[in-house]
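User: Could you go from structure to sequence for me? I need the amino acid at each position, not a summary. Structure tokens:
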């Protein structure tokens, strides 16, 4: 307790020191936000400058700008942004001055150009894709893992129809960092059936980083990074709101999500309330129901913002709560019945529809408190401080012989504190320098009273890290390099089924780095090359698991002697952008030393709770090679063709075999008809048809599985939508038919593919009203 108080006093002193300082003669700040004059959306990457003193800057991702160290006087300000009319005006400053600047579209210059989006940001050196606009709208109501499958190179690993988590370039769970509203998500990510504890409705867009950017976010990003980016607070409108209604036929899912926001006190205070309610019943495969696959979800978030002169701060409080049914057909009474179920490939009974959720099930609550602040300094730099506290509760209920199904079989309570202090300074020619420290303290305990030996022991974890990044912009190229050092200690303690103590202290540390380059070969052709080293210490379940993991319906056994994974990844991306044709191709190679994976030993354990296959955590050296493709072509002004594809080749180079649970080759083709209309109220009508082909995964080793890989499959999805103007407000309507032909198929990355087919046809209707 004394150390915590001392830590808080040092932190407060640091903040007060950053905010202190006397005003100098030439220390005036001109700051504000640049927006679209029509819909008030922020313009990121706009240029604002004062030519007489050769001072200019770019707006950040929230459209904010700061021109620091101005003397008293009158200045000619010039503002420009691609596709908008330039704006020039005089301003007299005698003190710190804030201004909102509105730019109008240059209709003359853009009369023959199809405008897809207004925001434009400086191109990143690393390889990244973003889910936004229409693609984001059409993914509403889906889980994070399912939504991101719209990005090439991203798949999802599933545990039945209720649980899905992202897979990037063949890796998932602890090898992927998820940042929710700028905070690293800390929970029970180690489980392949532990879905991310986030509400996608909190995000305006979602970015997937595949290349060399882990230096800033953390050392564990062997697979990649996912950023859920909320919209910036609106300081300039007293009140606005949005409501989304979604219904789905398969599982008879109903969802409502809404937000209200506004600003008070001369645009210095802003607020937002956001919430989501979701309820779904049993899903259905073609011809039968999957019993006990319903879900309930209640989420909410409150955001408060304050800004004044050269300082901004934001406070976020969010709560995510869900109950997930686990398909009951995966829990079987005897070894013979289990083998028979796998051979049958589907449930023996057709099931029925119900909203009830029985055992097995998961109940998860995740609460987040985040405080961050920005101080714009005299040297044109920005000092950012972010502190977060997360509380994660996970209860997993299992079918228990003799009753007592009201007691959880696994009951975990995790507390996490994260602190980040970062200094960033933009420099001329799209250059910048950034460095900082990150610290994480995690305490994870088993809650007593389950009457079952815990799957993992209690543990404490402490993880400080420091990083430095430098970017240099040259005539036709941009270079970025970064280095990071992390230290992580894990102190575990538990008792096994024989009441024998086990555990111990483990210390891990390593350096990670990234080297990235962006070459503007032609005005329409860019080439990126990223080389990085990332590392990941083994998680507690990999070290010490010794029992039934009910979510995966398997017995998992850890190895306390596992070493840290070290991944060397090289990714090269070619981007071609013309008016009609846009193509991006990425090729990557990833060499991972001491790769950790689960391997079935070919035997089954018959317990009081049923019969389950046994898996052991193993370690080897591995290589992963792959290619991602995203392509769009405008056939004419109305019809667009989209092509997405990905393939991964993964090998265990020590044992000369294939790695388990690697995505199969996948390709999708879409035709989109953007219907022209002259109606004053109706706008943006479209219809799209998508075909998805997933090949059979032939690259697997029999010793890593206990059933053959499923056959290849073809799916067809149909979507359409339109927007209607209601006064000054907007009503958006769209609908989708997933698996339009009700195809029976199995996906290789579904842990329950042994017992059932995937879900069948699903009609989804979405309504969105902004006012």
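Assistant: Here is the amino acid at each position, in order:
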């Amino acid at each position: 307790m004394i150390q915590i108080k001392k830590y808080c006093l040092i932190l407060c002193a640091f903040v007060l020191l950053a905010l202190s300082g006397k005003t100098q003669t030439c220390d005036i700040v001109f700051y504000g936000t640049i927006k679209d004059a029509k819909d008030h959306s922020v313009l990121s990457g706009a240029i604002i400058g004062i030519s007489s003193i050769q001072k200019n800057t770019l707006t950040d991702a929230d459209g904010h700008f700061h021109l620091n160290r101005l003397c008293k006087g009158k200045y000619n300000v010039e503002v420009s942004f691609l596709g908008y009319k330039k704006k020039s005006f005089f301003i007299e400053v005698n003190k710190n001055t804030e201004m909102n600047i509105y730019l109008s579209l240059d209709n003359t210059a853009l009369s023959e150009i199809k405008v897809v989006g207004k925001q434009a940001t400086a191109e990143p050196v690393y390889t990244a894709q973003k889910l936004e606009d229409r693609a984001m709208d059409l993914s509403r109501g889906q889980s994070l893992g399912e939504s991101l499958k719209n990005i090439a190179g991203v798949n999802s690993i599933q545990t039945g129809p209720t649980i899905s988590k992202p897979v990037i370039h063949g890796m998932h769970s602890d090898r992927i960092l998820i940042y929710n509203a700028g905070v690293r998500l800390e929970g029970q990510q180690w489980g392949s059936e532990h879905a991310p504890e986030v509400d996608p409705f909190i995000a305006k867009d979602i970015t997937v980083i595949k290349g060399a950017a882990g230096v800033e976010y953390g050392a564990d990003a062997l697979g990649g990074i996912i950023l859920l980016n909320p919209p910036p607070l609106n300081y300039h409108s007293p009140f606005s709101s949005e409501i989304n209604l979604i219904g789905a036929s398969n599982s008879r899912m109903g969802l409502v999500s809404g937000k209200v926001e506004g600003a008070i006190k001369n645009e210095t205070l802003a607020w937002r309330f956001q919430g989501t309610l979701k309820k779904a019943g049993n899903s259905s495969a073609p011809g039968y129901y999957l019993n006990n696959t319903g879900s309930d979800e209640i989420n909410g978030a409150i955001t408060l913002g304050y800004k004044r002169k050269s300082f901004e701060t934001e406070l976020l409080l969010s709560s995510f709560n869900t109950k997930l049914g686990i398909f009951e057909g995966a829990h079987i009474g005897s070894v013979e019945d289990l083998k028979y179920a796998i051979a049958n490939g589907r449930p023996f009974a057709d099931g029925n529809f119900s909203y009830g959720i029985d055992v097995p099930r998961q109940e998860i609550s995740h609460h987040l408190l985040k405080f961050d602040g920005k101080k714009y300094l005299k040297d044109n730099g920005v000092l950012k401080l972010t502190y977060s506290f997360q509380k994660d509760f996970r209860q997993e209920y299992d079918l228990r012989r003799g009753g007592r199904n009201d007691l959880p079989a696994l009951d975990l309570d995790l507390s996490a504190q994260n602190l980040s202090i970062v200094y960033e300074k933009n420099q001329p020619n799209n250059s910048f320098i950034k460095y900082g420290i990150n610290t994480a303290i995690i305490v994870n305990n088993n809650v007593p009273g389950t009457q079952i030996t815990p799957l993992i022991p209690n543990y404490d974890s402490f993880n400080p890290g420091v990083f430095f990044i430098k970017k240099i912009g040259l005539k036709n190229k941009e270079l970025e390099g970064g280095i990071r050092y992390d230290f992580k200690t894990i102190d575990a303690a538990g008792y096994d089924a024989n009441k024998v103590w086990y555990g111990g202290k483990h210390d891990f540390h390593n350096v990670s780095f990234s080297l990235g380059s962006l070459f503007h070969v032609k005005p329409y052709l860019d080439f990126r090359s990223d080389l990085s080293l990332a590392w990941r210490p083994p998680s507690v379940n990999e070290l010490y698991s010794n029992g039934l993991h009910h979510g995966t319906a398997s017995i998992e056994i850890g190895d306390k002697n596992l070493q840290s994974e070290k991944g060397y990844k090289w990714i090269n991306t070619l981007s071609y952008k013309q008016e009609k044709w846009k193509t991006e191709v990425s090729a990557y190679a990833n060499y991972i030393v001491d790769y950790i994976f689960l391997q079935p030993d070919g035997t089954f354990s018959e317990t009081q709770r049923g019969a389950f296959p046994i898996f052991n955590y193993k370690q080897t050296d591995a290589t992963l090679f792959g290619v991602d493709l995203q392509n769009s072509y405008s056939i004419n002004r109305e019809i667009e063709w989209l092509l997405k594809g990905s393939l991964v080749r993964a090998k265990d180079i020590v044992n000369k075999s294939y790695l388990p649970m690697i995505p199969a080759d996948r390709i999708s083709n879409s035709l989109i008809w953007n219907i022209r209309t002259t109606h004053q109220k109706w706008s943006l009508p479209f219809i799209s048809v998508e075909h998805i082909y997933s090949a059979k995964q032939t690259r697997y080793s029999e010793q890593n599985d206990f059933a053959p890989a499923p056959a290849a499959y073809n799916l067809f999805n149909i979507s359409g939508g339109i927007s209607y103007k209601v006064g000054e407000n907007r009503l958006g309507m769209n609908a989708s038919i997933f698996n339009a032909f009700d195809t029976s198929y199995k996906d290789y990355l579904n842990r329950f593919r042994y017992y059932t087919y995937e879900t069948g046809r699903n009609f989804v209707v979405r309504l969105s009203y902004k006012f």
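One structural detail worth keeping in mind: The chain has two domains: 27-103, 128-770.
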